[in-house]
């Protein structure tokens, strides 16, 4: 067995899985609270990636080149503005349709997805945008038969940041009054309003948090791959959605777990079988899991909302 | 006595179906008022319409003199109105403690320990079950939790929708006596919806009878209990 090669794939897969997981959280939260799939969420992620790029270039132009500071500022900027996009999309495209038939917001979401793609295409251009590596280098973990396993600083940064953000986020949902309100709305929106909770506000907040997490994923995607275009939200969005369903839609740990699994499947399949069929592999696993566990790995049986 | 809540000419619809037809109803401060009627008469709709979901299409709802007819639900509930709704609607994946805390959301989460103690004094069982998930409670315990949760906001008006539904007679008696004690001790005003007409009319100061979305009779509990048509429609068979 070639452990070194496998280890390298594991590292790559986990990194990719973290990015998917962050996006998947946004899908799963929105589904949990209003029972809709926000098809524009992938494009919110794409907007987050573009805003990150704009911020990084802007900061470089201003002469702020110390990497930790530049990244922190970029993260804040991208998360804040992307959150505003998320809030606006809900306010403009979904809230007016609340109480309408079930498919209405779904169709509206597809419309928002196309709108965001075209908006970025027109305003930023259709060509692929490259940036220079912001965090170069890494550490060599081991060497086996001439194959060097490398763990880049970037990968460490991505995994560490994701874990930190998810830890804070989990604490927020599980331990704070705000999180309790969100869970209440997720379990029974009508009852929450009977307890004096402004449910529209909580729903908005869900979109804001989901978008901010997508922006973090966008920044990581940009740093990891070094290139973005207006279309990255589509594939990444579908993958993250798959991750959310695989993990059990509505479940937060499920979203992260699903993201990790999709990332690992994709990377290992590419490494040992064929790159061309990596998406097929990921989606096949989804189908197989759903046949045996219709609510996903960590999903609850009573997810279906009336 | 002043009217704490008054409805005049209230109508409400579910889609094209009219659920309430010109409801006139008054609840005075310190009263227990009951609303009895058959399944589908519109009792729960009336409770929900007071809370703004669905909103009244016509007519007026006044709470402490303030017109709340077109207010959103969460604003109405912040005026000191609380509801233990039909079907209890416990947050099944939250603990009993968390469920109760949700009830104090409107109160700005102040003096929580005090509020909890009051609820536990009324329903000691909830204290034993504090760390258990709401969904694992028995029906009676869930009902206690629903009422306890509503009380956490220290409401001036408590709306109770069929607290006796599906519960053993002993538990029903326990819950009804808790309501009576609360009313006597704190002057809590209660609007109680019941199918269990006999118990409800005995508990209440006054009652209304709802038939097909309209009020057909009103009077004191004793008056209504004595009416032959009430006995025939709602009491025969149940309690003689």
UniProtKB/TrEMBL annotation, chain B:
Residues 5-237 form the ABC transporter domain. One of its GO terms (molecular function) is branched-chain amino acid transmembrane transporter activity. CDD domains: ABC_TM1139_LivF_branched (cd03224). Signal peptide: none annotated. It holds the Pfam family ABC_tran. Belongs to the ABC transporter superfamily. The lineage of its organism: Bacteria, Pseudomonadati, Pseudomonadota, Alphaproteobacteria, Acetobacterales. This is ABC transporter ATP-binding protein.
């Amino acid at each position: 067995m070639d452990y070194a090669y496998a280890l390298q794939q594991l590292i790559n897969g986990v990194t990719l899985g973290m990015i998917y997981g962050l996006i998947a959280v946004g899908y799963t939260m929105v589904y949990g609270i209003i029972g809709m799939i926000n098809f524009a969420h992938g494009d919110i992620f794409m907007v987050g990636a573009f805003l990150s790029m704009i911020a990084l270039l802007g900061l470089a132009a201003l002469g702020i080149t110390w990497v930790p500071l530049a990244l922190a500022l970029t993260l804040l900027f991208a998360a804040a503005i992307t959150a505003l996009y998320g809030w606006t999309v809900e306010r403009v495209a979904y809230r007016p349709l609340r109480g309408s038939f079930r498919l209405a917001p779904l169709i509206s979401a597809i419309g928002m997805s196309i709108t965001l793609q075209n908006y970025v295409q027109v305003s930023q251009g259709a060509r692929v945008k490259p940036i220079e590596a912001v965090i170069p280098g890494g550490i060599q973990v081991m060497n086996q038969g001439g194959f060097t396993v490398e763990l880049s600083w970037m990968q460490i940064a991505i995994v560490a940041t994701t874990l930190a953000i998810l830890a804070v986020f989990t604490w927020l949902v599980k331990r704070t009054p705000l999180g309790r309100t969100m869970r209440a709305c997720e379990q029974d929106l009508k009852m929450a309003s009977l307890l004096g909770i402004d449910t529209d506000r909580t729903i908005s907040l869900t979109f804001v948090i989901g978008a901010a997490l997508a922006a973090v994923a966008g920044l990581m995607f940009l740093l990891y791959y070094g290139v973005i275009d207006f279309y990255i939200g589509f594939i990444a969005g579908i993958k993250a959605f798959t991750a959310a369903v695989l993990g059990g839609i509505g479940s937060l740990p499920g979203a992260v777990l699903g993201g990790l699994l999709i990332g690992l499947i994709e990377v290992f399949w590419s490494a040992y079988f064929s790159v061309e069929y990596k998406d097929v592999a990921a989606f096949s696993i989804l189908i197989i899991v759903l046949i045996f566990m219709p609510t996903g790995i960590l999903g609850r049986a009573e997810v279906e909302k009336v | 006595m002043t009217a704490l809540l008054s409805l005049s000419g209230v109508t409400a619809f579910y889609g094209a179906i009219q659920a309430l037809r010109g409801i006139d109803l008054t609840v005075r401060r310190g009263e227990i008022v009951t609303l009895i009627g058959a399944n589908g008469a519109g009792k729960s709709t009336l409770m929900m319409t007071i809370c703004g979901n669905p909103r009244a299409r016509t007519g007026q709802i006044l709470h402490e003199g303030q017109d709340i007819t077109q207010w959103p639900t969460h604003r109405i509930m912040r005026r000191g109105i609380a509801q233990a709704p039909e079907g209890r609607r416990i947050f099944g994946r939250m603990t009993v403690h968390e469920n109760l805390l949700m009830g104090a959301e409107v109160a700005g989460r102040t003096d929580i320990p005090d509020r909890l103690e009051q609820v536990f004094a009324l329903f000691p069982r909830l204290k034993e079950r504090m760390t258990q998930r709401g969904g694992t409670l028995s029906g009676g315990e869930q009902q206690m939790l629903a009422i306890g949760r509503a009380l956490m906001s220290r409401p001036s008006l408590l709306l109770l929708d069929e607290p006796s539904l599906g519960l053993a007679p002993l538990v029903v008696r326990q819950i009804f006596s808790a309501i009576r004690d609360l009313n006597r001790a704190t002057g809590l005003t209660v609007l109680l919806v019941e199918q269990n007409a006999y118990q409800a009319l005995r508990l209440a100061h006054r009652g209304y009878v709802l038939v097909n979305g309209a009020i057909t009779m009103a009077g004191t509990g004793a008056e209504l209990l004595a009416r032959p048509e009430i006995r025939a429609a709602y009491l025969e068979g149940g309690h003689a």
